Amino acid sequence: MSCDATVIVTAAEPSGMGFDSQATAKLARQAIGRLGELEQRWSRFRPASEISELNNAEGAPRTVSHDTMRLIEALVQAWHVTDGAFDPTLLGTLVELGYAASRDDATLRTSLAPEIMPRGRPADILVEPSTGWVQMPRGTTLDPGGLGKGLAADIVVEELIAAGALGALVEIGGDIRVAGAPPSGSSWTIAVAPVAPAGPPRIVQLADGGIATSTSRLRTWNHDGRHQHHLVDPRTLRSADTGAVSCTVIAGSAAWAEAFTKIAFADDTANAMQRYDSRQLAASISTADEAQHESVSWREFCR
Question: Which three-class secondary structure state does DSSP give residue 182?
Fold first, then answer.
C-alpha cells in the first residue's frame, strides 16, 4: 500500500484482572499478516493482484475474493454518496500524470492497456456477490487508493475485536480505525497534523470509528515540467487546486472518512464545508494560507 502501518491491540487475561501479553502479541501478528494479505489482493502495483487482473480484463468478468468484492462495492458506493468527489476510476489519469511506480519500490509499476480511459464509468461496474464475479466496462480501471487503506484498517479492527481483543487501533498511511477499550483512558487519543507545518498537533478523541487525512503535501513529483500530487480533481483530471492542502474527516469507519476527505479537493472550501455540515460530518480543512476551517461537528471531537 506504499505506506507504513501501525497496530495497537490489547487482550484481557482470563481472570479479567489485566492485559495478556501473549494473547496481545498473537492478535498483533494476526493483524499484520492480514494486512499483507489484503495488500497482495488490492495493490495496483502488483500484476498478480485481483485489482490488477480486473484492470486488465478488458471488460471480461472475473471472480474475486470476498475481500475484493467488499472493496469494489465500497468504491462504487463512495462515488455515489460523494456525488463523484471520490472517483475510484482515475487510475488512467494518475498514470498519465506520472504516478505509475510504487513510492516504496520503483520496480513495482502499474501496467495498463493503451485503451484505458482517463476516467471510467463507476455506475456501470457490475458485481454479483452470490457468485463472486465482477465485470467492469472496457477501459474502466480501479485504484483502491486511500479508501483501500481505510477499508483494510476497518476489516482488521473488526476481525481483532471478533477474535477477542479488548480494543484495537489500526493505522495505515494516516487512515485510522479504532474500536473497543484503549490501553488507557476511556477513549482513543489521536494527534492530527497541525495546520502550519511547525505548529502543534491537534488532539482528537474517539471512542469508536474512523479518522482519515488526505493531503497534497505528500506523494508529490514533477512531470512534464509541472508539480503534481496524487489527489486528482475529477472535474479537471489534474492534480487538485481548490485551495485545500489537507482535509481530515471523522466518520463511522476509516473507509468512509477517507472517501469524504475528497470533497475538499473537488470543490472550493466554502462549498465543501457546507457539504460537511449538511451531512453533520466532523471535518477540518487546512488551506494554503495556513487557515483552518472546521465543521460544526468537528468541535465535538477536538480537545
Answer: coil
Total residue length of the chain: 303
**The C-alpha cell that represents 242 in the structure block:** 481548490
Q: Is residue 212 part of a domain?
A: no
In angstroms, the CA 255 to CA 70 distance is 11
Task: Provide φ and ψ at 229, rounded to 5°.
Answer: -140, 170
Please report how the helices 145-162 and 66-81 are oriented relative to each other, as an axis angle in degrees rounded to 10: 120
Q: In this structure, which amino acid lies at residue 162?
A: A
**Range(s) of the domain holding residue 97:** 60-144
DSSP state of 194: P
pTM equals 0.92
Residue-wise pLDDT tens for the chain (303 aa)? 678 899 999 876 655 556 678 888 899 999 999 999 999 999 999 999 999 999 999 999 999 999 999 999 999 999 999 999 999 999 988 888 888 778 777 788 888 877 788 889 999 999 998 899 999 999 999 999 889 999 999 999 999 999 999 999 999 988 999 999 998 888 999 999 877 777 788 899 999 999 999 998 887 888 777 888 888 989 998 888 888 999 999 999 999 999 999 999 999 999 999 999 999 999 999 998 888 999 999 999 987
Q: What are the Cα distances from residue 8, in Å, to 28, 59, 250?
A: 7, 41, 19
Q: In terms of Cα–Cα distance, which of 253, 88, 76 is closest to 156?
A: 253
- What is the CATH number for 117? 1.10.3980.10
Determine, yes or no, domain membership for 26.
no
Neighbours of 84 (CB within 10 A): 16
